[in-house]
């Protein structure tokens, strides 16, 4: 399979991964032939990329860090929790705790795995997918930092719930997928840590450490964050981890006024912000888990050839193994050519699709 921009999808291509909404509804089935009306529908939904099967890439497998069933359970649980909060129903967070424990178990069994799979999301699903992705990224970072199971569970719970206060936004403020905001809306947006604390403070499953993590995830290492302007190690360590995961997921998902940032550039942004906005040690541990050139991604080499990422070595992230897809003059090639960029230093990646 290959991950390509929706703008480059042509009718007649085949979808290699089903598109499933967080509530479990199937939007498009795996293997379906893309038609113009499907492409237009996905564009209206705000979807930027798809995974496509084609003869030259059908053998490429892009694995998620957790199995698809668990990811879907996590998304559906998040939908249920948020919907219950919105209508004022009692919320049993034991299901969230169980999902987080299952994530920890799966991630713990694959400590060497990196994040390659990038979920395909609709605009209106942002709040749900962001919660699950932030949880996964935070737990992976906690594992890299040597956290024990109790710490990982607390961190995961906080990451899943960190933005729950956004359900209390006024109707004029986008709840699930922020657009450009007016100054008044920005001020209201900055109140969501207080709203989160208000919603969660009386839940018996959540201790002070978890509540502080949710409340402080927008604080910044240099004191420029909100809501309290805390700095350095005064900020709850879980919150420091969640802040990095939160920023990264926002970068790669994009916003209505901004295209998704390629993984390589998102990682570079985090590195540049280390020591200013984020704890440098946490950024280092976070980046360890990210394949900056994810498998299935189309890239351009310095000789103008396009290629697809086949494999990435955790110790040599900058020099993956690639499959050449076109000639230097953009012409199609008939034979499959695979190159290990580590062994071919004259070639290097200069851009993403």
Description:
The protein is of the alpha+beta class and 353 residues long. It has three domains: 2-53, Molybdopterin biosynthesis moea protein, domain 2; 68-287, Hypothetical protein af1432, CATH 1.10.3210; 298-352, no CATH class. It is 39% helix and 15% strand. Helix 4 (126-144) runs antiparallel to helix 5 and helix 8 (208-216) crosses helix 9. The chain starts with a strand and ends with a strand. The mean pLDDT is 89.
Quick synopsis:
This protein has 353 residues and is α+β, with helices and mostly antiparallel strands. The chain has 11 helices and 10 strands.
Backbone shape: globular
Question: Strand count, sense and closure of the main sheet?
Answer: 5 strands, antiparallel
Overall helicity: 25-40%
Strand content: 5-15%
Distance between the amino and carboxyl termini = 15 Å
- Return the CATH architecture of the largest domain: Orthogonal Bundle
Q: What would you report as the Rg, rounded to the nearest angstrom?
A: 21 Å
Topology:
Elements: E1 2-5, E2 14-15, E3 19-20, E4 26-28, H1 36-44, E5 49-53, H2 68-86, H3 94-109, H4 126-144, H5 149-161, H6 183-189, H7 192-200, H8 208-216, H9 237-253, H10 263-273, H11 280-287, E6 298-301, E7 306-313, E8 316-326, E9 332-340, E10 349-352
Antiparallel strand pairs: 1-5, 2-5, 3-4, 6-7, 6-10, 7-8, 8-9
Keywords:
single chain; 353 residues; alpha+beta; Molybdopterin biosynthesis moea protein, domain 2; Hypothetical protein af1432; three-stranded antiparallel sheet; 39% helix
């Amino acid at each position: 399979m290959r991950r390509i921009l929706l703008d480059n999808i042509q009718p007649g291509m085949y979808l290699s991964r089903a598109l499933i909404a967080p509530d479990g509804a199937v939007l498009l089935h795996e293997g379906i032939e893309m038609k113009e009306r499907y492409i237009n529908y996905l564009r209206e939904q705000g979807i930027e990329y798809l995974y496509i099967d084609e003869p030259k890439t059908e053998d490429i497998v892009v694995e998620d860090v957790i199995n698809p069933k668990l990811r879907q359970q996590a998304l559906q649980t998040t939908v249920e929790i948020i919907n219950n909060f919105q209508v004022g129903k009692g919320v049993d967070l034991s299901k969230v705790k169980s999902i987080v424990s299952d994530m920890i178990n799966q991630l713990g069994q694959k400590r060497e795995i990196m994040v390659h799979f990038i979920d395909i999301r609709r605009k209106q699903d942002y709040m749900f997918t962001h919660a699950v992705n932030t949880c996964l990224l935070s737990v992976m970072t906690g594992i890299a930092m040597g956290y024990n199971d109790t710490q990982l569970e607390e961190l995961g719970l906080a990451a899943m719930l960190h933005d729950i206060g956004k359900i209390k936004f006024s109707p004029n403020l986008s709840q699930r997928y922020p657009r450009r905001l007016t100054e008044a809306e920005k001020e209201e947006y900055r109140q969501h840590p207080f709203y989160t604390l208000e919603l969660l403070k009386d839940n018996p499953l959540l201790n002070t450490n978890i509540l502080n993590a949710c409340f402080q995830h927008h604080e910044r290492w240099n004191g420029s964050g909100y809501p309290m302007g805390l700095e350095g190690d005064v900020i709850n360590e879980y919150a420091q981890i969640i802040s990095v995961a939160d920023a990264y997921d926002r970068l790669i998902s994009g916003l209505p006024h901004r295209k998704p940032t390629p993984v390589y550039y998102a990682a570079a942004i985090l590195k540049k912000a280390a020591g200013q906005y984020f704890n440098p040690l946490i950024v280092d541990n976070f980046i360890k888990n990210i394949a900056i050139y994810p498998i299935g991604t189309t890239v351009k080499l310095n000789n103008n050839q396009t290629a697809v990422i086949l494999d990435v070595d955790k110790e040599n992230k900058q020099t993956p193994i690639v499959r050449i897809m076109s000639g230097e003059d953009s012409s199609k090639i008939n034979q499959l050519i695979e190159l290990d960029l580590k062994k071919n230093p004259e070639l290097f990646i200069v851009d993403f699709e």
